[in-house]
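Consider the tokenized backbone below.
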């Protein structure tokens, strides 16, 4: 079976604390890869996104960090920096090499123990665990404390997780790593938009439909901050400029729109990075279509591979 880590130069690693229900995931490309990003949610927590603007100088990243812990989780990037520096990877500034580590965080402080967050040690551990082999999915890494369907409150939420997928056309490979922690529901477009994970009522069991719930409360001022954000990265072996990598990240958000309802709300910090290793010439439109498909499948796998944790049930259990 083809995996995302079949792309030469890419390794993926997780580290997590299941008791605290938090963790981080790192995508390593120590030789450097063209980076891009598109931030569409209204409540993002990010690192080095301005650097990826095409008008700015540096165009290569050496890792992408996806982390829980809200803004606290950005600390994990220091561990990734340390690991890459020890490997001699980074942007050469003469006196040393500075690793370029882009990253984004999701809010999982309301799942498990909020006092424990991804830190430098956990970021370093994720790098040590990074592999070019099969990588675990579900309640691992950045998806450990992820939950979905929170418009009606956390008592109605369901377990989210982290999913990985990879698409191919000829020699072109386009994959995605996504940690799904959305305010809304996750739906399967292949089943007519059927909700597969999200806000639910227990007796009798039924999905409450976050999108309809939001619309029904149109005249009410409700604080819906429940701790959200879906974060991910598209990884490809295509040859891309930094501007093209940003465009691919933009097109990849179609995968969120197809599977998350509602997506890109004011209370989500939805972010997608692009990492392009530059080995295969490809039509950017083809790369973008595959990127959206890969993100779509990664979102679905994130919730279908998740297991119950910290009192939150998963779609497998219903």
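A designed sequence for it:
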């Amino acid at each position: 079976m083809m995996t995302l880590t079949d792309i030469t130069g890419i390794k993926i690693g997780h580290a997590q604390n299941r008791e605290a229900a938090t963790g981080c995931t790192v995508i390593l490309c120590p030789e450097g890869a063209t980076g891009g990003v598109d931030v569409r949610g209204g409540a993002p927590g990010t690192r080095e996104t301005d650097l990826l603007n095409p008008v700015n100088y540096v165009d290569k990243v050496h890792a992408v960090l996806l982390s829980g812990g809200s803004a606290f989780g950005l600390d994990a990037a220091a561990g990734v920096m340390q690991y890459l520096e020890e490997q001699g990877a980074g942007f050469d500034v003469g006196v040393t090499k500075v690793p370029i580590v882009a990253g984004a965080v999701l809010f999982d402080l309301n799942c498990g123990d909020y006092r424990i967050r991804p830190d430098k040690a956990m970021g370093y551990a994720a790098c040590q665990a990074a592999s070019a082999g099969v990588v675990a999915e579900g309640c691992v890494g950045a998806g450990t404390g992820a939950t979905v369907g929170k418009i009606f409150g956390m008592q109605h939420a369901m377990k989210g997780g982290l999913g990985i997928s990879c698409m191919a056309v000829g020699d072109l490979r386009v994959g995605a790593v996504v940690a799904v922690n959305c305010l809304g529901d996750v739906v399967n477009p292949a089943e007519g938009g059927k909700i597969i994970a999200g806000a639910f009522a227990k007796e009798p069991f039924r999905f409450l439909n976050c999108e309809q719930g939001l619309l029904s409360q149109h005249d009410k001022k409700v604080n819906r901050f429940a701790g959200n954000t879906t974060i991910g990265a598209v990884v490809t072996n295509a040859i891309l400029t930094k501007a093209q990598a940003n465009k691919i990240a933009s097109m990849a958000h179609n995968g969120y729109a197809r599977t998350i309802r509602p997506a890109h709300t004011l209370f989500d910090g939805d972010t997608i990075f692009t990492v392009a290793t530059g080995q295969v010439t490809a039509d950017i439109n083809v790369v973008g279509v595959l990127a959206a498909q890969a993100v779509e499948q990664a979102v679905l796998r994130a919730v279908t591979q998740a297991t119950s944790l910290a009192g939150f049930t998963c779609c497998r259990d219903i």
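The mean pLDDT is 94.
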